[in-house]
Amino acid sequence: MSDLLRLATAGSVDDGKSTLVGRLLYDTKSVLADQIDAVTRASVDKGLATPDLSLLVDGLRAEREQGITIDVAYRYFATPQRSFVLADTPGHVQYTRNTVSGASTAQLVILLVDARKGVIEQTRRHAAVMALLGVPKLVLAVNKIDLVDDPAGVFERIRTEFGELATKLGWAAEDVVEIPVSALHGDNVASRSANTPYYTGPSLIEHLESVPADADARRHEVGLRFPVQYVIRPRTAEYPDYRGYAGQVAAGVVKKGDEVVVLPSGTRTTVERIDTPNGELLSAQPGRSVTLILADDVDVSRGDTITAAVDAPEPIDSFDATLCWLGDKPLKPGARLLLKHGTRTTQAIVGALIERFDEQNLAADPNPESLALNDIGRVSVRVADPIVADDYSVNRHTGSFLLIDPAGGNTLAAGLVGDPLTAVEVGA
After folding, report:
1. Which of 154, 223, 370, 385 is geometrically suited to a Cys-Cys bond with 330, CB 3.0 to 4.6 A?
2. pTM of the full structure
3. Minimum mean pLDDT range among 70-79, 145-154, 204-213
4. Quick check: 139 and 130 in contact, CB under 8 A?
5. What is the DSSP letter of 191?
């Protein structure tokens, strides 16, 4: 059975993301014949000689009318070697928040650039966001390579410029691959193209098939982290005393008989049973949704975290964090918001704005007055109820949180505990 790779697309408007995703679906035979027929008819109506594969993925009417991607859409395709879940994210600067959402769980991101434009402001912004999110693998797809006069020279110039940027953002050379492609004609997408003799590397799909599925191994570097989503007490004649704690394993492995700690209370107990709708398990891996039955009758509520006893973190009520600000109204010191971490939501105050990260110049602006839309900055946070968090550089799941508008419920920021951009050559 093939394994699974989670990936996302990113890039500026008109770089060809929708066409590339459509090409991936088409070349892997992941679309139905009637969908192809509908796209062909729509393309003919637009006066096109060949099918516009972007229509396979631009599902919203507004997207088709404007020729841009607005929402994050999840696409599923497979090859004989592997299955893929792809988050197709928008490129417009206005929708950077959607890109953050789509890439937050990705093991690999395909970052597109238009060969005619090269590395532009939005390319640098998206690269900085991917570095902030800790995406372990990156593909730079230099698209529309068939539209430039000197494709070999242009590709080498873009590859060199982006390679320097990626190094300064903390990626190792082996984690970044540059591929010249033509999404419209399929060059170097499913197979290597004779139209790019200067390029001797793999096609895009060949590379995607070869990336290790455990590229994001950091989620296994800590012991059990199990945020409690729901307390199950059926109170039926068949189960009069049943008390289970449902949730998803965020990190580590839980096994029957393990000693665990319930945080923030610090109560110790052991795992008596691991239940699922299909029966009991002896153990559960990260990403598995299960119900834990504990040996002792302890006080556990939604928002608590069941952790391994050997490396249980200290609950924290104040910490420094890195934010990607997603709100239209700027963030200023002293803002009172809601913080959602795992299954816990609590009141929070943003204290000092420590610095703003200039992703264009890779420089730090200390003590900014505010953070505007799409700004990345480091801040201090204080919460009313302690949270059980690891540093984001250690574990993406337990080190991330959201800041929410308490009045309207809108998400205002994606937050990461600690300073994930410590590897960046600031000011270099």
Report:
1. 370
2. 0.81
3. 70-79
4. no
5. B
- Give dist(CA 144, CA 206) in Å, integer: 19
**Rg of the chain in Å (alpha carbons):** 23
Q: How far apart are CA 294 and CA 226, in angstroms?
A: 13
Rounding to the nearest 10 degrees, give the CA dihedral for residues 274, 275, 281, 283.
Answer: -40
The phi and psi torsions of 90 (rounded to 5 degrees) equal -75, 160
90/70 Cα distance (integer angstroms): 5
CA triple 345-348-246, angle to 5 deg? 15
* Nearest in space to 334 (alpha carbons), one of 314, 350, 354: 350
Q: How many other CB atoms sit within 10 Å of the CB of residue 156?
A: 15
Question: In what helix (H) or strand (E) does residue 357 lie, and over which residues does it extend?
Answer: strand 344-358
> Strand pairing of 289-294 and 305-308?
unpaired
Q: What is the DSSP string of 30-55?
A: -S-HHHHHHHHHHHHHTT-SS--GGG
Count CB atoms within 10 A of the CB of residue 118: 15
Query: Strand, coil or helix: what is 188?
Result: coil
Q: What is the pLDDT of residues 155-198, one digit of tens each?
A: 999 999 999 999 999 899 999 999 999 998 999 999 999 999 99
Q: How is the beta sheet containing 82-88 ordered, strand by strand?
A: 73-78, 82-88, 3-11, 108-114, 137-143, 176-180
Mean confidence (pLDDT) of the chain: 87
Question: Which among 107, 50, 60 is positioned nearest to 82, based on CA atoms?
Answer: 107
Which residue's structure tokens are 């900055």? 377
Helix, strand, coil percentages in the chain from 3-state DSSP, rounded to 5: 25, 35, 40
Report the sign of the C-alpha dihedral through residues 192, 196, 199, 200, in that order. Answer: positive
Q: Tell me the per-residue pLDDT of 112-155, one tens digit each, with 9 for 90 and over.
A: 999 999 999 889 988 988 888 889 999 999 999 999 999 999 99
Q: What is the 3-state secondary structure (H, E, C) of 379-426?
A: EEEEEEEEECCCCCCCCCCCCEEEEECCCCCCEEEEEEECCHHHHCCC
Strand-pair partners of 324: 376, 414
With tokens 């008390």, the residue in question is 243
Token pair in block for residue 368: 């900014």
Residue with token string 């309207």: 408
Quote the CA–CA distance of 299 and 68 in Å, as a whole number.
Answer: 50
First to last CA, the chain: 46
Cis omega (within 30 of 0) on the bond before 333? Answer: no
With beta carbons less than 8 A apart as the criterion, state whether 208 and 177 touch.
no
The two structure tokens encoding residue 257: 């008989």
